[in-house]
Amino acid sequence: MEQRPESTADGASTGVAAVDRVLVDVAAAAGTPVAGHVAVFERAHEQLRRALDAQPDAQSSADDTADGEQGA
């Protein structure tokens, strides 16, 4: 079963559930004391890095194959 991405505070969705969850968490930080913001942003940074590492660059691979090159 595919999970639906959460909407961000403005109702937008990136289409990537992991990224949408991070954006929701960051938006929620607006209502918290500033002293806690660093922890929220550090956690968001780590989660976004994981999401990027988990997503292969499919477009780049497709472009390389279309150009007759094999992925390096």
Distance between the first and last residues' Cα: 33 Å
Unreliable runs: none
> What overall geometry do the principal axes of the alpha carbons give?
flat
Q: Give the domain tally.
A: 1
Radius of gyration: 16 Å
Separate helix tally = 3
What's the mean pLDDT score?
77
What portion of the residues fall into strands of 2 or more residues?
Answer: under 5%
The chain-level structural class is mainly alpha
Helix/strand order, N-terminal first: HHH
Structure summary, number of beta strands: 0
Percent of residues in helical segments?
Answer: 40-55%
Can you give a write-up of this model?
Residues 53-63 have a biased composition (Low complexity). Residues 50-72 are annotated as: Disordered. The chain has 72 residues and is mainly alpha-helical. Helix content is 54%, strand content 0%. The protein has one domain (1-55). It is built from three helices and no strands. It starts with 16 loop residues before the first helix and ends in a 6-residue tail after the last helix.
Please summarize what this structure is.
With 72 residues, the chain is mostly helical. The chain is built from three helices and no strands.
What does the secondary structure layout of this molecule look like, with pairings?
Layout: H1 17-28, H2 37-54, H3 58-66
Helix pairs in contact: 1-2
Comma- or semicolon-separated keywords:
72 residues, mainly alpha
